[in-house]
Amino acid sequence: MTPAEYREWLVRAAEWGATYREGLRERPVRPAVRPGDIRRQLPASPPEAPESIEALFADFEQIVVPGMTHWQHPRFFAYFPANAAPVSVMAEYLVTAMAAQGMLWQTSPAATEVETVVLDWFRQALGLPGTFTGVIQDTASSATLAAVLVMRERALGWAGNRDGLAGGAAVRVYASDQVHSSIDRAIWVSGIGEKNLVRIPTHGPRRGMDVAALDAAIRRDLDAGLRPAGVIACVGGTSAGATDDVASVAEVAHRHGLYTHVDAAWAGSAMICPEFRTLWDGIDFVDSLVLNPHKWLGAQFDCSTHYVRDPASLVRTLAIQPEYLKTHGKGDLINYSEWHVPLGRRFRALKLWFLLRAHGLTGLRTMIRNHVAWSAAACERLRGTPGFQVTSDPVLSLWTFRHAPAGIPDLDAHNLALVNAINDDGRTYLTQTRLDGQIVIRFQVGPFDTTESDVKTAMDVIVEMAARM
């Protein structure tokens, strides 16, 4: 590709992206395709000769785009959002154009120093004390894995990386059954093992950990000669917004000398609004936490902020310094690759920097407050509609419901059929979960470009589809 061709196609791609965003409301949120439909349109073997960019772009528009689920659609109410505010997309393009590796300070000094500053800005916006220092991970899964590895090393006297886990007393980690599946995966990958992830029962409307049961479980393991290592608390769980009493959990953990990590991947972004911070009261006393600006806040995926009170423990757990990765003759610098598992790292901080500056905290707070208010109104509308049950009240903008008209013998099958009918309709997109042993449907407002009208349309679709069944 010549420089002139490069310029021409970059401009065309940018124009396509802008047009795509403008027309999202006219597209179905989820494509009407079946497994294998896209694959059958692709050649079985790679091309031997070069193909024109014109042909590549045409296939992109004719094959790929019709098979995409549109995560930036303003009526995408499934899972949690993976927002990409336009200014974040622009920043990501600049990062991609430079294609730098930010693994060490010397490999891109600006990438490191912008990250340090912007994460401190974000810390202030969240109301976190200055005792926390941040690093950007790719996802909350990676941040949680890093936290679990620190827990493991502390419990093993910093000998686990050297000696492994074989032959010693089992390392134990504690969490409720409401935490994300990424916690299970971190336990697997760390070598701790699934049977050593101790599930603490939950109670109350927030489905939080029973702290008395947590304390009792730790004491039992200590008496049995096991090695309690840490507790993972949840703020705004994926299924129905389950939230632990962070202050009480941290108090129990610290009493036993355990590390405390908080997964606030989705809900954490709302803490830029001071009135929502009661949801994580006690956050000042935990050892680490993770939240994803690439969910609700609007930073293009991937951008997960991991805050720690003791960076030295994280570096001690993860840093490897062969000669070729050392920076000689420089002091007072950070090599962020020593703060996470991968060595390579992208310049993720630029999109967060652009986002915070372009929208300001005022603009981002307004978006989140609107989403919470619109979601609460939608919940009340469905609560008042005959045949519907609200199965969990809103946690910020997330709540669940169930269609339960009289005379339906299998309500689980009925609600699965309903959510499939809603999604096949194309005007909105929802997901189901299992709550208290029953299939329920999740509703969560979070898309960056959503309006109040989009939320009302979603409610119209839900009621309409239910009436047809």
Describe the 3D structure.
With 469 residues, the chain is an alpha/beta fold. Helix content is 42%, strand content 14%. It has a domain at 101-346: Aspartate Aminotransferase, domain 2, CATH 3.40.640.10. It has 14 helices and 13 strands. Helix 4 (109-126) packs parallel to helix 12 (349-383) and helix 13 (411-425) packs across helix 14 (452-468). It starts with a helix and ends with a helix.
What order do the helices and strands come in, and which of them pair?
Layout: H1 3-22, H2 53-64, H3 86-98, H4 109-126, E1 133-137, H5 140-155, H6 160-163, E2 171-176, H7 181-189, E3 197-200, E4 202-203, E5 208-209, H8 211-223, E6 227-234, H9 246-255, E7 259-263, E8 288-291, H10 293-297, E9 304-308, H11 311-318, H12 349-383, E10 388-395, E11 398-403, H13 411-425, E12 431-435, E13 438-444, H14 452-468
Parallel strand pairs: 2-3, 2-6, 6-7, 7-8
Antiparallel strand pairs: 1-9, 4-5, 8-9, 10-11, 11-13, 12-13
Helix pairs in contact: 3-12, 4-12, 5-7, 5-11, 12-14, 13-14
Salient structural properties:
469 residues; alpha/beta; 7-stranded mixed β-sheet; 4-stranded antiparallel β-sheet
Short description:
This protein has 469 residues and is α/β, with parallel strands linked by helices.
